[in-house]
Amino acid sequence: MIYDCKTGRPPGIYLRTAPNPWGPWSARQLLFNPAPDAATRTGFCYFIHSVSRCPTGAPNPPSGRTAPEGGYYAPYFVAGWTTGIRGSQTTRAQTTIYYTISTHVPYGQVIVQSTIDGPVPPRQPPPSCKGTACM
C-alpha cells in the first residue's frame, strides 16, 4: 500500500506491506520526500511549485497563477511495471516499483520509481569440523 501523508515526519509518500489485506501491516517506509532535491531534480521547485522552499537556482515550475504553494496527492501503482530480484544467502532482495504522484500547481501527474531493499541476509554459522574434515 502506498499513500500520501502530509502530517508525517517528514511528510511524503509512504509504503506499508502486509501478507494479507487485513494485515498485520509493516511500519511505514518513506518512498518520496517532497523536499527540493537538486541531485535528483524532484519535489518542490522541480515539479511542484513553491514560493518559500526553493533554493537559489532551482527552476520552480511556473504556476500560471498566484497560488503560494503546490502540492502532491493520490499515489497509484503503475500496474505491471514492478520488478524485483530474489535474495540469497549473500545478497539482499530488491523490488523496484513505479507509481504516479498527482500534483496541483501545476496540475498534472509524474511517474516516480523507487527501489526497496529487502532485509539483510542472516549470517551463516561456520561449518562444524571434526579433525581435518569439515561437514
Mind explaining what this structure looks like?
By secondary structure, the protein is mostly beta strands. The protein has one domain (2-119). Helix content is 0%, strand content 35%. The chain has no helices and nine strands. The strands form three sheets. Strands 4, 5, 6 and 7 form a four-stranded antiparallel beta sheet that branches. Strands 1-2-3 form a three-stranded antiparallel beta sheet, with no helix packed on it. A two-stranded antiparallel sheet has the order 8-9. Strand 6 (94-104) and strand 7 (108-117) form a beta hairpin. The chain is elongated, with a radius of gyration of 21 Å. It starts with a strand and ends with a strand. The mean pLDDT is 84.
Looking at this protein, list some descriptive labels:
single chain; mainly beta; three-stranded antiparallel beta sheet; 0% helix; 135 residues; four-stranded antiparallel beta sheet
Write the topology of this structure.
Elements: E1 2-5, E2 12-15, E3 29-32, E4 71-77, E5 83-85, E6 94-104, E7 108-117, E8 129-130, E9 133-134
Antiparallel strand pairs: 1-2, 2-3, 4-6, 5-6, 6-7, 8-9
Radius of gyration: 21 Å
Question: Which range does the strand content fall in?
Answer: 25-35%
Ranges with pLDDT <50 over ≥5 residues? Answer: none
Helix amount: under 10%
Structural class: mainly beta
Give helix and strand order, one letter per element, not per position: EEEEEEEEE
Say what oligomer this is: single chain
Count of individual helical segments? 0
* Structural domain count: 1
Number of strands: 9
Q: Average pLDDT value? A: 84
Major pleated sheet? 4 strands, antiparallel
What general form does the structure show? elongated
First-last Cα distance: 45 Å
